[in-house]
Design brief:
Distance between the termini: 40 Å
Radius of gyration: 13 Å
Shape: globular
Helix content: under 10%
Largest sheet: 7 strands, mixed
Strand content: over 45%
Structural class: mainly beta
Number of helices: 0
């Protein structure tokens, strides 16, 4: 089992940047494919980005492609989400998630991930 803790959220103006971190404890972090999801008030949870356990494959939602970058440092048991050119519609609680099975082809599906963090709030003002 792995425990996930997100950090780095906050309030930022439109056009600004934030970097989220997801730190894992427990079993070997490098054994998990990882993802970021978000949930805005009144909306369903949506996929943001995912990264394979090696870090060689990444996947992005169309809404964030070119603005967000997912990465991981297995030596530090940490995954990151660099968010640039933020927009008010990026406002949401952001959650990191871990999957023990490879999610290639199904990275956007929340049920593919067994482990979830508590979330960190990102608010983008216009």
């Amino acid at each position: 089992q792995v425990q996930l803790v997100e950090s780095g959220g906050g309030l930022v103006q439109a056009g600004g940047s934030l970097r989220l971190s997801c730190t894992a404890s427990g079993r070997t972090f490098s054994s998990y494919d990882m993802g970021w999801f978000r949930r805005a008030p009144g909306k369903e949870r949506e996929f943001v980005a995912a990264i394979s356990r090696s870090g060689r494959r990444t996947y992005y939602a169309d809404s964030v492609k070119g603005r967000f970058t997912i990465s991981r440092d297995n030596a530090k048991n940490t995954m990151y989400l660099q968010m640039n050119s933020l927009k008010p519609e990026d406002t949401a609680a952001y959650y990191c998630a871990g999957a023990s099975r490879p999610v290639y082809g199904s990275a956007t599906i929340g049920s593919e991930y067994e482990y979830w963090g508590q979330g960190t709030q990102v608010t983008v003002s216009s």
